[in-house]
Amino acid sequence: MNVNLLEIEDLRVIYKTDEDTIYAVNGVDMSVKNGETMGLVGETGAGKTTTALAIMKLLPERTGFIKSGRITLDGIDITRATEHEMEAIRGNTVSMIFQDPMTSLNPTITVGRQIAEVLQLHEKSKSSSEMARSVDEMMELVGIPSHRKNEYPHQFSGGMKQRIVIAIALACKPKLLIADEPTTALDVTIQDQVLEMMNDLKERLGTSMILITHDLGVVAQTCDTVAIMYAGEIIERGRVEEVFDTQIRHPYTSGLFGSIPNIKVTARRLNPIDGLMPDPASPPDGCGFYERCPKKMEMCGKKPPLFPTEGNGHAIRCWLHGDCARRGDGS
Amino acid sequence: MREKPRKRSQFQMTWRRYKKSKLAILGLAAVAVLFFSALIIPLFKDYDTAVEQDFSSRYQPLSAEHIFGTDQFGRDIFIRMMFGARISLLVGIATVSASLLSGSCIGAVAGYYGGRIDEVLMRIMDVFLAIPNTLLAISIVAALGQGITNLLIALAISQVPSFARVVRASILTVKEQDYIEAARALGTPSARIIARHILPNAIGPIIVQTTLNVARTILNISSLSFVGLGISPPTPEWGSMLADAKPQMLQYPHLILIPGAAIAITVMAINLVGDGLRDALDPRLRN
After folding, report:
1. Of A15, A77, A122, B286, which cross-links A22 as Cys (Cβ 3.0–4.6 Å)?
2. How many domains does chain B have?
3. A248: distance to nearest CA of chain B, Å?
4. More confident residue, B150 or B48
């Protein structure tokens, strides 16, 4: 049970355009265990989706490149896999759910046939009656009556479409499900239902999940571990309870928590984090958060902080904390 | 026990929107009548009656025996018109199918793969587009020599670029859609993505372009035949009938009015169908 299903080591992804090179992901290390849900949190442009696309090897052709690093999924090195090998992996070992359910279904094909298509691609040995049964089963599993399988996507509501998208993603019982802001496009009540259903299905099928979100509430509700991304780096990670129930945090994480409205306290204003992320075309020498950090020190602007080398628990990439602080003093 | 689900396919939705336009229905009716009569005429009249000359009955006016009268060689104009419709539709559909097929392949490859392949293919198409359609057809006929096969080739080649452009453009828009990315994320191979996910969603503009091109081809055949480069007499072709009637047009205006009207009505009807389809398939008018 304690085996790492996904292991990412020092992943660097760049986007090359005519004008400049965008450093989207700058040395990400992370791992997901079997059956575990990891929350990947960060603001827009932090590199969350890029990391996910790198795992799927679906970075935009001709512009997106994995510059270095290793991604090991279920014992296979993704970075070295050919496109043909990836076709067998995608949808079968790893599935991805995209942000907007309204546009991730093909409008010209009935939902039942869209679910059947994944099965046709990856479970070729199944007979057509077995496939039809699997389609019904998947639809019932996500709470949609199976007699609606001959309807087209436009005949469903947003929440139901997202359920169908989830049914397609889970049809081949993948080992890892990457959900890229699966509930952002839905309203709050539906969001809750969908998340609960995903949690339930994941337990039943034993799937691991990477949940990309910028909602810390969603993380608290569904995840086992959390990784916080900023400017293409993971700046803090740990078990959810370790990160949520402590005052020892990365200044950026503190900022994130500070910008959540608290119903117990009367506040006139929320506390957003001032400033913007550094330009990904020219990353700074030191810590990426230096410009915006309320606790910055002189050395922060000169040398990037490192993750603590030992231990698997709560880790913070900041000169103020733990291992990092000690090593900083020594040098 | 299970109730039958209401199935509303894209075809049914398109038809529902198409019906709303009276002009489009009128155009469709006209095209249907034309097709039907062109299809069944050989059952009633021999092709020979359309070409055999009968000098005892020249220049007859409209009558019950000869609905549209007869021409300077005593041939029944109605029968010639009907056989002419066969030729126009046959040539129109054959050339458009040929150019649709080759144009789609070029456009699909250029659109899906992009990059240098796209650049090279589309610049070649641009060269063809820079030459006016009819002029290009005339030069090809002049180079290859007259004859129906050469005419077909000339007309088909001159239409390939328009199809390549339309197919490429619609593939480019569909290619960026989320459900294409989602299909890739499920491990769908490229060929299957093009066939099952891209083309069905890009088909709207292609259908419209096909319809409009059929109309344009019919017009082109007639123009080429009129100037003597198309289908040569005695074959009953609307354009060559116009050319034959030209010297007598002041004395016998019906000789020129009937084929002229036939060309105009056919082209307009097909264009109306095309416009109706464009409106019905326009995604901005959905729901």
Report:
1. A15
2. 1
3. 38
4. B150
